[in-house]
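Co-fold these.
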Amino acid sequence: MPPIPSADALSAWLSERIATYVQRKPADIRADVPLAEYGLDSVYALTLAGDLEDHLGMSLDPTLMWDHPTIAGLTQALLQVMTSV
Amino acid sequence: MTTPIDPTSVEALEQRLGDPWDDTNPVGFSQVLGADERGELLDAGERMLDAYGLGAEFVPVSEGGRMAGLDRLIDLMRAVFRRDPCLGLGYGASSLIAAVNVWTAGSAPQRRTVADLLLRNRKLACGYYELAHGNDLTRAEFEALPAGDILRLSGTKQVISNIHRADAVVLFARTQAGTGSRNHSQVLVDLTRVPADRVKHLPRFRTAGMRGVPLGGVTFQDCPVPADGVLGTPGQGLETALKSFQVTRVALPGMFLGIVDTGLRTTLRASLGRTLYGRTVADLPQTRSVLADTFADLLLCDAFTTAAARGVHLLPREASLTTAAVKYLVPRVLMDAMGRLSTVLGARFYLRDGDTAVFQKLLRDLQPVGFGHLARVAGQMTLLPQLPLLARRGWAQPMPAPADLFRLDAPLPPLPFDKLALSGGGQDGLTGSLLEGLEALNAHPTEETRELRGRLESFARELEVLRREAAALPPRELTASASPASYDLTTKAITLMAASACLNVWRQQAHDPFLGDPAWLLAALHRLEVWRERAQGPLPEGIRTRLFTELLARHEDARAFDLTRKPLGGGRPSPASTP
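Predicted complex below.
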């Protein structure tokens, strides 16, 4: 398993992915705004979960993104999952 | 034979249904058509299904019911749909659609309540949709907001089957404000206990087909209900819905297949009994070609639904993928088949009286298969975002599905409601089995399989192209606003899954004189290519003759036109009257 990334690195990676997805600049994606506000629908969680699994080398429940719908919340939740494995 | 038949079997249900063409049969076509003209469900049919105990078929064995294999449930309900789709939907499938949510997310007391209701043959309604939002469930506005230990229901659901006579309803409701995917819940509401002054029933909707099924709306005005009606944890509604759909979106098309079985039977019967240009219509090559095509369509659809339905038991993690694929392909093939059959009947498909009158009803009743309880395009939208992961995982290192997926008689474990998942995680055993089947054929090449191997090789090449194209899809192409070219990739993926289902049903039934013959398989693969507009024209003559011969034999023997070849009620058919 790859080393656990820092919160900043993970948050930056998520901003980058989501910015690509909604075709904006990463700087425009705020960490404390629910991702649905950027036009990301419930189905996108499935795609993002797959990307995250490949990035982090672990398997994830796609509903994690539904339970933590901001970048900040998701980052914390992911770190918690990774440190508890 | 003196062994009494199992009173809960499909055969026993067929015996109760009896001869459809007998005018004195209380559940024959004459009575079915009479009820349809009146816009009513056939009362004698409902009482007959009560006596059979059909409600128990929607309750898992673990809850005291008879629901075991999804393939058995489809088979039973297909028998009802062959006779009267209104009974199939209005008596049965509507309750099933609601109940699956309870089996997926309900607590033990909720499951007991619903099991008890269905075992008493009472109705359970399902209120998901709001006309303004269609399949976009996250926009649903109907509210069930918590206030202490109660919920307050407010809003309208316009289109619910059986709402006026159901004992309980599963409502899809917003349990908190805001955007996101955790704001809705399913709420199980006991309609016998809600305060009457807070519930208003709306006038019944009249419909083009399924005229006997009472479709109504309901408005709740600040109506208090116990908060323990929420299925699962509050906010779990979308997740439960997306999991439950995996069961219903394969089961319903599988049941609706029974409509085209009767459509084909009606057309064949009329063609045998009618003389034109000095010979029966069934002797005309063009007629035979259409009838054989339709038979092949039914086998294609049944192979796909059966493999997907068995897959819900055996590969539950992948059910989001396979059942969405079935929902996209099967309804279209069934609707096109009915349209083609109507050309054989000529003007008579239009008549509401006489020996073929049931056809016009079936043609109308079939239509909801395409849009009812999830539109076909929703099937594509489920597949599309999964394509890149499939390209990186399951299609890059294919893993075949277990052989039992395709063995029609192999026992199944109980439906694993707790193992259904929102995404297949990039795995696709069905497509893996396509490659495995091809390898097995190539290991022992025979002249008999030469053409088949050629076709399969081209599917394998197509998978390679699909994998590359899917891997290259940019994120914007994974949403509802994707281009038609991206949607086409889902059609390719669906084609490969359907081809695999047919190939492997053939492989695993090698001992069967008909299903083990490559003729039907080649016919089904040809029809698959016609479906996606890669091929056109009739089946090759040898295959056409083989299928038509089997079709005639089954007609004379009163057997189903699907994979099961089950005997139908009423025995050998009486000839159609000559007009």
